[in-house]
Design goal:
Elements lengths: L6 E7 L17 E2 L17 E7 L7 E4 L2 E6 L4 E8 L5 E7 L2 E2 L14 E3 L4 E4 L1 E3 L4 E9 L4 H4 L8 E8 L27 H12 L29 H4 L5 E10 L2 E7 L8 E9 H6 L39
Parallel strand pairs: 5-16
Antiparallel strand pairs: 1-15, 2-10, 3-6, 4-5, 6-10, 6-12, 7-8, 7-9, 7-13, 11-12, 12-14, 13-16
Length: 327
């Protein structure tokens, strides 16, 4: 029985001939091979098939902060930003992108199973500058308060403050080829020799560790602590965190951004191959949640350090005689 085809339509940025692709200006959502300002090809991040970065309206990626396994970006009220998705692999991929839980193409609640995304060529990139209004224009992304955010005005303020990307690889026709021989090494050369220590060590420790002593009957029941992961989980500094308004994304001014529709058949129709999430908020709110957003500057030394501190002292050039005998 032949398996039915599951082709979907994606969006690919319009390409022009020659050097004109670089002269389109920042208003074009391009999909081309990434190049730096110096004219040299940008090396893709090591080990990442698809990478995500949040860029300012003037270009340049905004700094990211790692906190408890999640990635955060600090924004400013009224500031414009763009989303850059890079394909570091040698095959086409489709990227379904959401902002504040809203799909950037359809403006509906994000659902990567049924919604289409941007198609990226091998080693190409796409600059997403706003919520898509048509094949030629978008509504710019701008940081704003929750009440004025696009998701908040549609009645879903609980999803404000997050950017998500679901990546699907393209379905390739099967080829009869010989399976490669298994590698000799048991692990990649870049992995530490203790890479699998946690899995086996934790299992052996769980077997040898004694059972915890039962709590006394008269002891008060401890409150269960909720996990502190990414997103907007409750924190100890929730009271301080609520003093400053949270940031959302505004449905901003109309900006020219040309794309065209292409066909794309997903390898796995309802399961992404890569999932990426970035949370954002103001620097004050991130700082209140315990995320380090301020650079650390070490204090200056009280005096200038000396390369040879003992050079001014006199020393014998040869071994001196021992002290006099005491007994």
């Amino acid at each position: 029985m032949r398996r039915p085809s599951s082709k979907s339509f994606g969006l690919m940025a319009t390409l022009l001939l020659g050097a004109a692709v670089f002269a389109c200006g920042p208003g074009v959502a391009e999909a081309h091979r990434p190049w730096s300002d110096s004219g040299q090809q940008v090396a893709p991040p090591w080990g990442q098939e698809v990478s995500l970065s949040i860029e300012s309206g003037y270009g340049g990626a905004l700094p990211t902060y790692q906190h408890r396994g999640s990635v955060f970006v600090a924004g400013q009220m009224g500031e414009r930003y763009n989303i850059r998705v890079r394909n570091n692999s040698g095959e086409r991929v489709e990227a379904v992108v959401t902002v504040d839980g809203r799909d950037v193409v359809s403006e509906q609640l994000g659902n990567y199973k049924t919604q289409r995304g941007y198609v990226l060529e091998p080693y190409g990139s796409v600059l997403i500058e706003g919520f898509r209004q048509s094949l030629d224009s978008v509504a710019a992304f701008r940081f704003t308060d929750v009440g004025n955010s696009y998701s908040g005005r549609w009645g879903t303020p609980q999803h404000v403050g997050v950017i998500g990307v679901a990546v699907f690889k393209e379905n390739q026709p099967r080829r009869q080829r010989r399976e490669p021989p298994p590698p000799i090494a048991t692990r990649p050369y870049y992995e530490p020799y203790y890479g699998d220590y946690d899995a086996r060590g934790a299992e052996s420790q769980s077997r040898s560790a004694p059972a915890p002593a039962p709590a006394p009957a008269d002891a008060p029941a401890a409150k269960s602590a909720s996990p502190r992961g990414g997103g907007y989980a409750q924190e100890d500094a929730a009271a301080e965190y609520s003093r400053s308004p949270r940031l959302g994304t505004q449905y901003g001014e109309t900006t020219y951004s040309s794309v065209r529709e292409v066909t794309f058949e997903r390898r796995h129709k309802r399961r992404p191959d890569v999932m990426m999430t970035v949370y954002y908020d103001s620097a004050e709110n991130l700082r209140a949640r315990g995320i380090i957003v301020d650079p650390y500057y070490s204090p200056a030394p009280p005096h200038d350090p000396r390369p040879f501190p003992a050079a001014s002292e006199r020393h014998n050039q040869y071994a001196p005689p021992p002290p006099a005998r005491r007994y």
